[in-house]
Structure formats: C-alpha cells, structure tokens
UniProtKB/TrEMBL annotation:
This is CBS domain-containing protein. It comes from the Bacteria. It holds the Pfam family CBS. Transmembrane segments: none annotated. Residues 1-65, 74-129 form the CBS domain. Keywords: CBS domain. PROSITE patterns: CBS. InterPro entries: CBS_dom, CBS_dom_sf, Diverse_CBS-Domain.
C-alpha cells in the first residue's frame, strides 16, 4: 500500500484570506493552477479556492463577486488528509467530496497539495472499489 508521504506533492500556491477573489483568479492564472490555498492570520489554512468556486460565484452573484474579499465568500473549512494515510484513502476522500485537490498535513503543518492527477498511477493497485459505481 502506497502512503501519501511516498508521493511527490505539489508546492501549493497560497493567498491571504484578506485578498479579493479577483486576486485569487489572477494568481491561479499566473501559476497555471486550478486551485489555491487560502491562509489566515499566521499562515493557518482556512480554505481551498478553486476556479470552479470563482466561476460559480460570478454566475450566482454577478461580476461584483470578484471584488469581494475571499474571507467573506469562502464559508467551508478545508478538507485535508494526513500524510501517513494511503493513496486509496485519498482517492476515496476525493471521490466522496468531489474534489481534485487535497491539502496534505502532519498535525498543524502543511506538507503540500495532492492532486487527483498525482494519484492516477497508483489507483489501480491501491483503490479497492470501482469508480464507475
């Protein structure tokens, strides 16, 4: 069984929760990523913001949404996984929560970001369920 600690994690792009949604979109574009970690205070992970979050926010609330502060529009706590868990656990968690990016932690310490793409080589061996169900 492959552990998450044995996989190369992405170095996450992050932004303060005090910044505006448009700044998050610009940062994603600059770095060519589909999500960023939102940090508050002294680097505490508070959320993961995705391109989908931004598009849906604009669709529901209009273009003014992009000028809102991130902390005013992101209301959910981030879903994280411990680095000692298995690749199968991560794949199940991503499928259950319908997410493609998962922050990896050791206690309070952020280790990196796991993408569904990084899991693909391991899924056949480590995931004991059928994704087509």
């Amino acid at each position: 069984m492959t552990r998450i600690a044995d996989i190369d994690l992405l170095t996450p792009v992050s932004l303060s929760s005090h910044k505006k949604v448009i700044e998050a979109a610009m940062l994603m574009d600059k770095h060519g990523v589909g999500s960023i970690l939102i940090l508050a205070g002294e680097g505490k992970l508070t959320a993961v913001m995705t391109e989908r979050d931004i598009v849906r926010g604009i669709a529901r609330h209009g273009v003014d949404y992009s000028h809102q502060r991130i902390e005013d529009v992101i209301l959910h706590a981030p879903i994280t996984i411990h680095s000692g868990r298995s690749v199968g656990d991560a794949a199940k968690m991503m499928a259950r929560h319908k997410i493609r990016h998962l922050p990896v932690v050791d206690g309070e310490r952020l280790r990196g970001l796991l993408s569904i793409r990084a899991l693909l080589p391991f899924i056949k061996d480590d995931v004991p369920f059928d994704f087509q169900d």
